[in-house]
Amino acid sequence: MRINWFPGHMHKAQKEIRQAIPKCSLIIEVLDARIPYTSMNPMVGELRGDTPTLKVINKVDLADPKVTALWMDHLNKQEGVTAIEMQGTIAGRAKAILQVGKKLLPKDRSDGKPITTIILGIPNVGKSTIINSLAGRKIAKTGNIPAVTKQQQRISIEQNFVLLDTPGFLWPRLTPHSCGFKLAVTGAIKDAVTEYEDLAFWAVRYLADNYPSELMARYNLESLPETEMEILEVIAGKRGCLGRGGIVNLNKVSQVVVLDYRQAKTGRLSLETPAQVSQELADAPPDESAKEKRKRRKAERR
After folding, report:
1. How does DSSP assign 5-41, residue by residue?
2. What is the value of pTM for the model shown?
3. pLDDT tens-digit map of 34-76
4. DSSP β-ladder status, 153-158 and 161-165
5. Cys bridge to 254: 49, 146, 200, 242, which one at CB 3.0-4.6 A?
6. Residue 299 backbone phi and psi in degrees, to 5
7. Gap between the Cα atoms of 48 and 178, Å rounded
């Protein structure tokens, strides 16, 4: 099964961003600390050229700190890229972004020349909250559901500093295969276009393989069964997600598992490491990458 979500406003945003990025002096991309690679817009790498790029790692309080450290090291090794974690007070976070962002600009810039910055991020990554903190006032709509922002807007942050806000969007086809599940489990894809059962099956498999002790502790399990269905059945019994005759209410227990993860009740757990992503890409069919690029460019031209 593949998960994709690409409504009309995202297609429009994609075209606008493609035109805007080459005109900007700085690119700010907000990433979800639980899925830094999966939440990274492939258009940035394709279009940024030598434009300095600031990767803002958000939602660090929901992610595994050890894995976040691996991603920080990985991202900061990329040419032209600087990564920072969003921690501390809202005002402090905004100050950190502005200070680091300005340091990345070319030293030979003419004084007084407007700094146009574009800020990007997938749905529900917390971009609007960051924008409001940068502006010092409520400008962007916020909410814990995806796709709150629907259109592009220009925001004056301070003298000679203009921020170009863009709607959160995904891409027509998500690769590798697991990307769709990661986005949906973390809440970047609307629940209405997915099934909780599918997300829970993927989530318990990943957690059982990578965070078994945290999964067992959350649901008071003495051991983990081998299959995803068996794990969900045991959790259903522990959480009272049973119908008449003791039949498992699969939808109910699946919601419990997914929402517990999103709210970090299962623990601060990341869904990918740099090594895991590298392996997934290496294991993908040889022609998949080139094929996806052709399809993406064709869709963008339309």
Report:
1. ---HHHHHHHHHHHHHGGG-SEEEEEEETTSTTTTS-
2. 0.84
3. 999 999 988 788 778 888 999 999 999 999 999 999 999 999 9
4. antiparallel
5. 200
6. -65, -40
7. 26
